[in-house]
């Protein structure tokens, strides 16, 4: 709605509430908002009606579901996933979706829908035959519920927990079902037969059974020729039938912990998003015929180098994992370099004692995110990072030399996360001109690090600092004039008392929500240069006292 239209609603809010009661008034206003939706947002909003009340939704899954449903319009020079994310942010900006968790670069990772919004979505979805009154639930969780009578016009159904109960119901009255979603709301639910899905729902486009215990997938699944999305994550499934190679319209396959992935993916040439993490075996897997592939997550190092990566001209996000001791470095480096025109995100995860192959990635100008988890022989100038790299994460690299002299030269790095085992030394030093654009620095589970020395002029734009070891002394903190947010581990009541000495002046404190707890310290906005320096001196003094008393 425009500013003027929202002002009309605001000016008449009291009248709505007085006339129809508080809840009815809220629903009326929400209905007005829905009427004003642009046409491309309405199906995305109605789709929210399928999710359980207060359910935390993975935005990765949500966006891929929208794409598979056909809700997302193709835009020139923009991927459909990016377009779907724009739709999501527009619903968030309209206060119709609540943000639950964001990534380090502020992208929404999880969200939920408020009760009132959910009620409106369900009401409108039924009006448009988007869904029917067709949700089957677990009678133990919802005693007042009973199996619904399915409408022949029903296009989408969602099942909450009791899938066996759903499978036992006659389904021939819903031959035009397009989407079937399962939500495990607690407990263990298993199903031995899935044949009824293929037999009853011939035009199914979306099938997501995440969290449902599945013994096997019948070979007749290959008859679902309209299927675009197949979600089988966390099902315990170990094998897929070869017939999935017949799913020629499949855009998304999301599964993990398979014993092996059948070597038929090369047949599914329309696939764009392939998630096959944590394979138990390392059998050959041909994927270089899938030229529309945009996200490939979970292919092993050995599988990867057997493919001609130059054919994957659309690949933007790549995660390679597994053993890599037999991978030849030059061959591997060249295979990544062939993605120079498209690759934006790369994650390398080595298992066991094998080391990450060295890479010269200067030929990947679009690569902006790089994650490494695994041993590295060394980090030297020869390990060429791309100039446009903006986000870097190192974990379990077991580096013996301080990585900062190399990393601080990355001209466009905005976020640096150094996690457990990334560096084994006790000291790190940042030179005067180091990290010219860094905004976020996270040092997590560094048990050995005792000294971080930041020279004056380094990290001039650092805004957020997070670390979880009070044994680490940070020198030069008072020179970081743009630092406004610090996250540290919650230690004791004494630490809280110490902090309250500075809380009323320049800093505020909120408790970090999570199993480990913590202190989230934020600086007041609008401080003068002199006040900023004073605030940083107070913070440095507080952290020094905590380090001296060793609260952790």
Report on this structure.
With 552 residues, the protein is an alpha/beta fold. Helices cover 25% and strands 20% of the residues. The protein is built from 14 helices and 26 strands. The chain has helices spanning 3-11, 13-20, 22-35, 42-47, 59-69, 80-93, 115-127, 163-167, 195-200, 301-305, 329-337, 404-407, 493-503, 529-549, and strands at 57-58, 98-102, 108-112, 136-137, 156-160, 179-183, 190-191, 206-208, 213-214, 229-231, 252-256, 273-277, 295-300, 317-322, 345-350, 369-373, 391-395, 415-418, 427-430, 440-443, 451-454, 464-467, 473-475, 485-488, 507-511, 519-523. The strands form 4 sheets. The chain has an 18-stranded mixed beta sheet, with helices on both faces. The protein has a 3-stranded antiparallel beta sheet with strand order 1-3-2. Strand 5 (156-160), helix 8 and strand 6 (179-183) form a beta-alpha-beta unit. Helix 2 (13-20) crosses helix 3. 35% of the residues are buried. The model is unreliable at 141-149 (pLDDT under 50).
Topology:
Blueprint lengths: L2 H9 L1 H8 L1 H14 L6 H6 L9 E2 H11 L10 H14 L4 E5 L5 E5 L2 H13 L8 E2 L18 E5 L2 H5 L11 E5 L6 E2 L3 H6 L5 E3 L4 E2 L14 E3 L20 E5 L16 E5 L17 E6 H5 L11 E6 L6 H9 L7 E6 L18 E5 L17 E5 L8 H4 L7 E4 L8 E4 L9 E4 L7 E4 L9 E4 L5 E3 L9 E4 L4 H11 L3 E5 L7 E5 L5 H21 L3
Parallel strand pairs: 4-5, 5-6, 6-8, 7-9, 8-10, 10-11, 11-12, 12-13, 13-14, 14-15, 15-16, 16-17, 17-18, 18-20, 19-21, 20-22, 21-23, 22-24
Antiparallel strand pairs: 1-3, 2-3, 24-26, 25-26
């Amino acid at each position: 709605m425009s500013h003027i239209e929202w002002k009309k609603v605001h000016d008449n809010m009291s009248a709505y509430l007085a006339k129809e009661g508080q809840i009815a008034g809220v629903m009326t206003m929400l209905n007005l908002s829905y009427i004003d939706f642009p046409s491309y947002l309405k199906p995305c909003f109605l789709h929210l009606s399928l999710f359980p009340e207060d359910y935390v939704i993975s935005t990765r899954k949500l966006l891929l579901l929208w794409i598979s449903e056909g809700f997302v319009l193709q835009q020139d020079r923009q991927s459909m996933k990016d377009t779907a994310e724009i739709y999501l942010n527009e619903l968030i900006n309209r206060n119709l979706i609540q943000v639950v968790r964001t990534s380090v670069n502020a992208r929404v990772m999880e969200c939920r829908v408020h009760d009132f919004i959910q009620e409106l979505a369900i009401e409108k979805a039924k009006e448009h035959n988007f869904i029917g009154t067709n949700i089957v639930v677990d009678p133990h969780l919802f005693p007042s519920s009973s199996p619904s009578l399915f409408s022949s016009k029903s296009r989408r159904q969602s099942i909450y927990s009791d899938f066996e109960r759903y499978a036992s119901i006659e389904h021939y009255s819903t031959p035009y079902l397009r989407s079937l979603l399962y939500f495990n709301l607690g407990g263990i639910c298993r199903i031995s037969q899935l044949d009824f899905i293929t037999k009853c729902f011939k035009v199914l486009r979306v099938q997501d059974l995440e969290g449902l215990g599945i013994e096997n997938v019948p070979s007749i699944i290959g008859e679902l020729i309209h299927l675009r999305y197949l979600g089988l994550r966390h099902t315990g499934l170990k094998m897929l039938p070869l017939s999935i190679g017949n799913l020629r319209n499949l855009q998304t396959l999301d599964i993990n912990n398979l014993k092996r992935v059948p070597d038929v993916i090369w047949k599914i040439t329309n696939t764009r998003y392939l998630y096959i993490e944590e394979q138990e075996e390392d059998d050959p897997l041909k994927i270089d015929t899938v030229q529309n592939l945009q996200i490939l997550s979970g292919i092993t190092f050995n599988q990867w180098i057997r493919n001609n990566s130059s054919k994957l001209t659309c690949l933007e996000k790549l995660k390679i994992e597994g053993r890599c001791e037999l991978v030849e470095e030059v061959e591997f480096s060249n295979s990544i370099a062939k993605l120079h025109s498209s690759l934006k995100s790369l994650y390398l995860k080595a298992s066991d004692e094998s080391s990450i192959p060295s890479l010269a990635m200067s030929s990947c100008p679009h690569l902006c995110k790089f994650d490494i988890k695994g041993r590295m022989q060394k980090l030297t100038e020869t390990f060429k990072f791309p100039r446009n790299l903006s986000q870097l994460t190192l974990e379990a690299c077991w580096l013996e030399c301080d990585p900062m002299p190399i990393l601080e030269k990355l001209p466009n790095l905005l976020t640096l996360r150094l996690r457990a085992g990334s560096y084994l030394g006790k000291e790190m030093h940042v030179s005067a001109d180091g990290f010219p654009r860094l905004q976020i620095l996270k040092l997590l589970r560094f048990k050995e690090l005792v000294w971080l020395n930041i020279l004056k002029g380094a990290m001039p734009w650092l805004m957020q600092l997070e670390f979880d070891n009070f044994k680490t002394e940070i020198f030069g903190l008072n020179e970081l004039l743009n630092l406004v947010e610090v996250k540290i581990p919650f230690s004791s009541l004494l630490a809280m008392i110490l902090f309250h000495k500075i809380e009323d002046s320049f800093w505020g404190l909120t408790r970090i929500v999570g199993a480990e707890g913590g202190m989230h310290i934020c600086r007041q906005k609008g401080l003068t240069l002199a006040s900023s320096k004073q605030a940083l001196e107070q913070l440095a003094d507080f952290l020094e006292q905590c380090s001296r008393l060793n609260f952790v």
